Amino acid sequence: MMETKKKERGKWVYVGLPKEIADRIDKIIESRQWGFRSRNGYVLEAVKTDLKVRGYYP
Questions:
Q1: 0.85 exceeded by the pTM?
Q2: Quick one: which of 2, 7, 17, 50 has the fewest CB in 10 Å?
Q3: Is residue 1 part of a domain?
Q4: Which run of H or E residues covers position 48?
């Protein structure tokens, strides 16, 4: 397992995103077109989808 500095709170781990990416996610959220209501919701769904494609998530 990788040893890195990370901010943890309970069962959540926090990671940083470049501002440019966060701004693009915000535009998706603001459009209300796909039902996302927060950055967290969008990123969580995107990561789960990627993990499924790679066979690392049920």
A1: no
A2: 2
A3: no
A4: helix 39-53
Could you read off the pLDDT tens digit of each residue along the chain, which spans 58 residues?
555 665 556 889 999 999 999 999 999 999 999 999 999 999 999 999 999 999 999 9
Q: Residue 11 and residue 38: Cα distance in Å, rounded?
A: 19
The pLDDT value given to residue 15:
94
Query: Does any domain span residue 26?
Result: yes
DSSP secondary structure string for all residues of 8-45: EETTEEE----HHHHHHHHHHHHHTSS---SHHHHHHH
- Our CA angle for 51, 43, 24, nearest 5°, is 130
Q: Which domain holds residue 23?
A: 17-53
Taking the C-alpha atoms of residue 34 and residue 9, their distance in angstroms, rounded to an integer, is 28
